[in-house]
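Task card 7
Instruction: Convert sequence to structure tokens.
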Amino acid sequence: MGQLLLVRHGQASFGAADYDVLSDVGWEQGRALGTWLREADLAPTTLIRGDMRRHRETLEAILDGAGWAGSDVADQVQVDADWNEFDHVALVSSFPELPPGELDRRAFQHVFEQATAAWIAGTFPAEGAGETFADFVARVRSALGRAAERAGSGQTAVVVTSGGAIAVAASLLVGGDDPATVGALWSRFNTVIANSSVTRVVVGPRGPRLLTFNEHAHAVGSLLTYR
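Output:
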């Protein structure tokens, strides 16, 4: 069997002009994860990441913490944009029930949950106004299939991506292709994924199967964050 390690990026910069940048904590989380992966003897045979800045920076931090920077596998990173997060900022900012003024973390989370519930149900956004939840699921399904092909027997593919994409992958592996089931599972998984956490997928003759979800033993104390 082979395995996929789906890694959520480190903490990004909530409230900053550019969200898509790791915070200082995010860099620490990535380095701590790299150390943990090395000590657990989970050296990758393939590295894959989305093409967002926080994915690239998280992978850089992991390689630094693990001491893998400059290795052959680090020099052949595959970039797959289908592992990118959905545009949660655009989704929330265009939501009809968005309250006026700047939102703190708690207010943002409340609107986020409302907006994503409508997104999953297919009632928002309007047709042609942005990526639908079904579109998001379809592209992550494709990315998961390609990554699984890189995790043959005895191989370990590490994918650095975002929480929403990992939640889709876990939902598909647990719930199959039923849209209602995937949507319900996604809303549960997506709210609890820790920054820099690892979700393990084993890949065998019957395809990929979920082994563990949201491992974050390396993220202790101030390194445990969800936003």
